Protein 1
Amino acid sequence: MKFIISRENFLLPLQLVAGAVERRHTLPILSNVLIKVSEGTLWLTGTDLEVELISNVVLSGSQEEGEVTVPAKKLLDIVKGFSDSSEILFSVEGNKAIVKAGRGKYSLSTLPASEYPNLEDWQGEVEFEISQANLKRLIDSTHFSMAQQDVRYYLNGMSFETEANVIRTVATDGHRLALCRIGYENGTLPERQVIVPRKGVMEISRLIEDEDKPLKVQIGSNHIRIFSTEFIFTSKLVDGRFPDYRRVLPKEGDKTVLSSKETLKQAFSRVSILSNEKFRGVRLNLASGELKLTANNPEQEEAEEVVDVEYQGENLEIGFNVAYLIDVLNALSSEKVKLTMSDSNNSALIEDAADDSALYVIMPMRL
Amino acid sequence: MAKLIHIDMDCFFAAVEMRDHPQWRDIPLAIGGSAERRGVIATCNYPARKYGIHSAMSTAQALKRCPHLKLVKGRMARYVEESRRIREIFSRYTDQIEPLSLDEAYLDVTDSDLFHGSATLIAEDIRRAIVEETGLTASAGVAPCKFVAKIASDMNKPDGLFTVTPEQLDGFVSALELRAIPGVGKVTWEKLQGMGLFTCADVRAYPFDKLVRRFGKFGLALWQRAHGQDERRVNATRQRKSVGAEVTLPEDVHSFEQCWEVVETLYGKLHQRLQSCQENLAIQSQGIKIKFADFVQTTAEHRQHRLDKEAFVPLLHQALSRQQGRGIRLVGVSVALPTEADSQQLNLALPSLECRSA
């Protein structure tokens, strides 16, 4: 096999698929990228058996069809290292892959393409189109609440749900929950709920941009696949049932606070500096018109901030992990934020004051 | 300067047995598991120590050294009860008590006015009260810091007391052999000797940065100890960190199934022990320990919020994946208890833990 390609055209798809390549080499071939030339197109594939990424680019110039696998990281570093306008000649000779540009020549080890693992064939059962920007919003609004290496394995991922005219994502680690939903206008979606593993979620978030370009999403019984013009991404699904978010949305909140998001975020960020590094507890004292934030640490250092808020009602003292609050305020893009609370033992609901499409539930800490 | 007392009961389990069975008082006596079941010695009395028997020695070896050794199985419930009586005695002198085990505790009497503030006289009075009320003897170490108090309690053992005053501290520490310092085990002691370090005075003369580069955080601790520094205060709220159960098997086993049978038996014990200190069975992680025939041990653990027997299955597989054909002589199961912070953070009312249908 053989092809000629400019550095620029090779680098983009190569960088894309290299992200999916396994970094912990459990199987040698998983640290390789599959390279295939067929019908005038170059196809690149990377996988770690959990997720698979395929990208393609149309070739011009002389070429010979065929396929081979080479070490992904090394190939990427070599291509990256060539000067900007290089023409790269890639060929296979015996069991070596030869990469040439200018006066440089690199001979890489190969493993046969026939040994490269394929995700088994599967059928899409639900299919819909969504803009990159909308998918990005669904993921970026919630991903930080996913659990990490929790024995409740179904929490180590994100719940993707379709229902009539809504697409929804939910993530929770047992202490907090994040939910985001967007409307779907191109028809009615079947009711479906799947869990995308953490790695798959982070990979998708890396791949897509905040732009209007359309994506096609396909959901099967064990896989989710996303088609764009630049790549085809597939992830296995987590086999399990995600807890019903409706059961943890607080309903009894009677204390509603409105505040400038930016002011509140800055105040929490500053106060957090003197919170206990391990437990991150911060105390909130709510009174009519103002919210006082305090934190202290084992070194007996103390921080206090008072933020003006729109609130009339009873006083309330409640503690939270400040990192959870900052995560939420970072995810919100609104000018004003709304907090709804009831007492110091029950969860708080946080949302954009003008838009309830993203909801955040945080359980308090006892301080 | 702090005034700390380290109280250490003299061969506690054996002393309780000798008090309850005076006929065992003058013969070599040891508490431990049977040699057939490959048990080890937990404690032995002084007549037994004359034969070179010490705690943690295998019972088989102890019997080789002293064939007429009187071996008794031990009555843990009785020892726990005695330990409570002793702690009650401590509490008359101070509420700053940090128990280290059933037979050992640190007391902080810095702020005490008893005996005109003399820690030595307080320690003597505690020892007197223990003998009078329980018939057992204790040794005490009095010093301005924890590790010196601990070393001091060993100086005039049994039934003795040793005080290191603030004025004596520097000289006392300087002459100390490094292996006397808690935390310096056999391996570290060998390494230190290899570096030409034998006493605290040697460490003082050694470049600090080299020590830290070699031993990391422990190097810093060693440097501080060698200078008589130990900032650790008596921790009266010290909490239990883990609960476990383990057994040395009468004979090596080899298969997963055999090990699993042992785990099932141990699980019952673990469950019971956990329940007695943590009613809702909330934990932080659970783990398995395997000791192979060559005494090399391995552990596998997993974060977990509630004790779950089935979660031991993958852990046992994980531990046994390192078996490499070796026999298995010991199996243990344990859980780490949640720390203060874990219980401070409240949980969402998610439906309870779902198990993957295997």
Protein 2
Amino acid sequence: MSNGVFYERDRGIHPPAYFPDYKTTVLRSPRRALLSLQQSLSELTGPVFGNGDLDPLDNDLLLNYRVDNDPIGERIVVHGRVLDENGRPVPGALLEFWQANAGGRYRHVKDHYVAALDPNFGGCGRALTDANGWYHFRTIRPGPYPWRNRINDWRPAHIHFSVFGRSFVSRLITQMYFEGDPLLPLCPIYQAIPDAGARARLVAPLDLEAAIPLDSLAYRFDIVLRGRKQTYFENRPEGF
Amino acid sequence: MTTKVLQESASQTAGPYLHIGMMPAAAGLERRRNQPGNVLARAGALGERIRIEGVVYDGEGCVVRDAMIEIWQANAEGKYDHPDDPQQKAVDPNFNGFGRAVSDFGTGLWWFDTIKPGVVPGRHKRPMAPHVNVLVFARGVNVGLQTRLYFSDEAAANAADPVINLIELAPRRETLVAQRSERDGQVVYRFDIHLQGDRETVFFDI
Ligand SMILES: [Fe+3]
């Protein structure tokens, strides 16, 4: 484990704050330049989570809000690794994920989409990566849903991911998409990512090797968090 | 030897339903065990008890009602509860320093019950004024916004703070300073966040 500072964030692979096709960004995007800050102890630390923070069913969305039946939809396994930019596993990363049900409806007091709620599906879970950076959970494949943006905008099927690495600067919230979804080229949230490679890395391929025969298909989603530079003396904030 | 061989995954908005995954009780789902929340100071935590509260505003001054705020702060002694904090100071077993709050669906107000942090050394061992690290997520925010909260009753420390002094325009510095008051015997710091406009908060690229 290195105490070096993190690589600068490459803003060119992230969506810009202001992206008018995604209308909500128009009034919610800072217009002034971000202030560049050299990393101090405040940025290099962050909350640390452990297995004691999770419940046994947190990574099983088929069971964690089940009442009297399995949730409706295609049963899937989502798995992958959390790595840093050096290609090294990030153990102990906390992942939180949330999604719509098979009909594209969120279990949320503010979601009034006409599609039915599923009484056996909550749509949220958590997982912690193991020593090699691996995580997995089971769920149902979420449905696409319409949203109020342009008159006929539909979100591709997606699962929201929130990730904590080892520091507050490596904090990341993103979305996982599904291979082959015809809505991807039409989605302004996804298309706001300016780099084709960066977009492709948010699309989880079908992973038949990891499928459970006669039970569940599987999708592979790897996540990369910011990595630390080698600990040359000059990279190490003094006070360390 | 370490080299950058991969690129960070691209950020995407947390969307309007961020509560489901990160604050399920607010979404209407039953509360999980050990869910991070907005009360950081457990019984016995050392330091001055304070409330931090505010509202997030958009570029037209409208209240943002679907934001999530995360904070990360040192304890009263200025020690982070993290293995990479090398300071010879004690961790407070009753204070972890991480908190999460969401805007009220009606008023937009978010709040934390916490303690006032101590002084943490910055780069070149220059002390930083007491501060709280803040992250803002919301629908329409494509990449989480990072800022800091400083305290209005620390004017001398703030004037010497190496981060505040990076901000050239004095009125912009004020966007990072929470205003102290007392309400019903409780210390309250008000910290409104302006995503855009004349009073736009200073956000960092770290
Ligand atoms: Fe969504």
